[in-house]
Design goal:
Strand order of the largest sheet: 2-1-3-4-8-9
Number of helices: 10
Strand content: 15-25%
CATH architecture: 3-Layer(aba) Sandwich
CATH topology: Rossmann fold
Oligomer: single chain
Largest sheet: 6 strands, parallel
Structural class: alpha/beta
Number of strands: 9
Order of helices and strands: HEHEHEHEHEEHHEEHEHH
CATH superfamily: Alpha/Beta hydrolase fold, catalytic domain
Length: 270
């Protein structure tokens, strides 16, 4: 999978859109912790953190079996994802704004249940914002107009899943220039299936106590905007930000996403 994305990271580095990977940029508050989507890694946030600059601190961990983490896909679970992020957050001096993308929203919610006292706000960027007891598989049941979901391809042993190569650009990043989109092959991985079927376990006392914000992407072909709205309308949110982008606003409208996150930080600090 993703063989047609070979040139994205070098191209973005050359263009100055991405910086050399860094887990934490030492600077002033606020602090953001970013959870990447399925198939990607912490590297997907590099252009955004560079755009936001040194006025904040950033943590961009790789989930198990993603990015530079070499855990076997069969060994990961939703709990191991959440524990990885919680451990990162526990190293933060004070609270963090936890930002998630796509499936990363499931991980963010479960992490928030574990360490609510360390999270100033939850931000879902076209992400799965699920109620207690629901899983990713539950959330996609009956969704028929997602180019991404309609082009999933499971491995023979059923342990991983990818998006078919010929549908990938249209499914997740049609507004990202194809020559730039074509670069991430070596950096993307087949997605472990196990955590996709695991339900979140959330409580009003922990997860429910944290302010939540949603960034919807109105031209998203992976999680259609109607589904995004259905999720955030079902739970209390402080504010909704709207970007006219595909599923990858951190590549196609990095300035707009940065401005939304900076506004959220300002709201949190009031």
């Amino acid at each position: 999978m993703f063989r047609n994305l070979r040139q994205l990271i070098p191209a973005l580095l050359t263009a100055g859109i991405l910086s050399v990977p860094a887990t934490l940029h030492a600077s002033e508050n606020p602090h953001y912790t970013f959870i990447h989507s399925a198939w990607m890694g912490g590297w997907q946030w590099q252009g955004l953190t560079q755009e936001m600059g040194d006025a904040a601190q950033y943590a961009t961990p790789d989930l198990p079996a993603h990015g530079s983490d070499k855990t076997a896909p069969s060994d990961v679970s939703l709990a191991s994802y959440a524990e990885t992020v919680a451990n990162e957050i526990n190293n933060v001096d004070g609270k963090t704004i936890l930002v998630s993308h796509s499936f990363g929203g499931v991980v963010a919610s479960q992490t928030a249940e574990m360490v609510p006292e360390k999270i100033a706000a939850l931000v879902y960027v076209c992400a799965f914002m699920l109620p207690d007891g629901a899983s990713f598989m539950d959330a996609i049941n009956g969704v028929e107009d997602s180019v991404a979901l309609n082009n999933l391809q499971f491995s023979e042993d059923g342990t991983t899943v990818v998006i078919k190569d010929d549908a990938l650009h249209s499914a997740v990043g049609h507004d990202v220039p194809l020559d730039a989109f074509a670069a991430a092959g070596p950096y993307l991985v087949a997605e472990p299936v196990g955590p996709l079927g695991e339900a979140v376990s959330l409580s009003a006392e922990n997860y429910g106590s944290i302010p939540k914000y949603y960034v919807e992407c109105t031209d998203d072909r992976a999680i259609p905007v109607a589904q995004q709205r259905g999720m955030y309308e079902a739970q209390p949110v402080e504010a909704v930000y709207s970007l006219a982008t595909s599923h990858l606003p951190m590549f196609s409208n990095v300035t707009g996403l940065a401005e939304a996150l900076q506004d959220i930080a300002a709201r949190v600090n009031r």
